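Hello,

Our lab assistant flagged a job as stuck in the queue for most of the afternoon. It eventually completed. Since we weren't sure the result was trustworthy after the delay, we are filing this so someone can double-check. Below is the sequence as submitted and the structure that was eventually returned. Let us know if re-running is recommended.
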Amino acid sequence: MECKEAFLASGGTVFSYIPCMNERADWIAALSSIATNHLAGWPLSAEADAASFARAKQLGATN
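-- returned structure --
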């Protein structure tokens, strides 16, 4: 349990432990699915970044 000692030393009076979701395989699978769905379509290579930069320059980007 991270920070319990710091919490109590700083004046905290009640520290309640809540089990982490990452201790269960089904939660890890669910979080992985959520992340995969929201990250879909992001460029994964330098070539994709270079192509995006070139398109932006053609459209008038100045940076």
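-- support follow-up --
The delay was a queue issue, not a problem with the job. The result is valid. The mean pLDDT is 85. DSSP finds three helices and no strands in the chain.
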